[in-house]
Each structure stands twice: as structure tokens, then as C-alpha cells.
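User: Need the bound-state model for nickel (II) ion:
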Amino acid sequence: MSILPILIHPDPRLKKAAAPVDDITEELRQLARDMLETMYHAPGIGLAAPQVGVPRRLLVMDCVKEEGAAPRPMALFNPEVVWASEDVTTYEEGCLSIPDQYADVDRPAEVRVRWIDPEGNEREEHFSGLWSTCVQHEIDHLDGKLFIDYLKPLRRQMITRKMIKLKRERARA
Ligand code: NI
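Assistant: Bound-state model below.
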């Protein structure tokens, strides 16, 4: 397994819609494993393929937070929200592509998501709490959307300027 470099905003690859996966090859299964390792290492609770420069509809997540609880690594190919609650919840979100920046985002509190697992089986599950916020955030990545796109333009521009500066500093280091 290997840890993959994570793209930092702004990057045109983070703004593009990703293509569906029609055949889950061993290569894509390996990518899912590498993405999980990259996510745990960051550390983070979710990661989408476009964030590692792969324009395919694949995301990984594990939102188990309880100390000592068993991890639940998930890899979702072609995930789709098939139902969303009218109830909205606000969560302070962050993103591995936008390091150290957090902001409140409103999203449906609960969603039902359908996807294909790495073995090729169709799966469907109801998500609530942090899992719901996380899966919606990651599916947004597959559509070229970032959590800062929900913020007011001024706040978004401020964060983007910080990220440009961060990238410049990292390039120099
Ligand atoms: Ni993100």
C-alpha cells in the first residue's frame, strides 16, 4: 500500500466532475486501499478519488470516532444519494484539500445512498450524523464541488488566498 499525494485547492482537477466506474478492476481496488491508507494517515474521515488526481467516482470513508471502537473502512464506487431528509443539520466541515480551514455547512441531516462495493455488489445504506455529512461532502468532490462553495464569496476568497499562499510556501520548502 502507499500514501498518495493529496491535491490542495485551488487545483482545476478538484473542480471537474468525475467519470463513473463501469468495471471495478484490481487497479481500482488497489486505489481504494491506497486512498484509505492515505486518509487514515492524514488523518481524515473521508477522501474522494479526484483529491488524489484520479477523475473517477470513488470515495472512501470511516467516521467511527469512539475511542477503542473497531474501524469501519468503506469504499464506495458510483455513490448516489437516493433520498435526503428535509431536516437540515449544520456541521463544522474541513477538507484534506483545504488544510486547517473549517466552516459551518448546512446539509440534509440524513441520506440514503446507493453504491457499488469493491466486490461489485450493489449496496444501499441510510446514513445519519457525521456519516451523513461526510458522505455528502465526499460525493460533492465527485461533482467538482468543495465545501467552501457553500460559503459566502468573501469567506471563500479569503480561504482560497490562504491556500495559494500555503502552496507557494510548500513549493519553496
Ligand atoms: Ni473534502
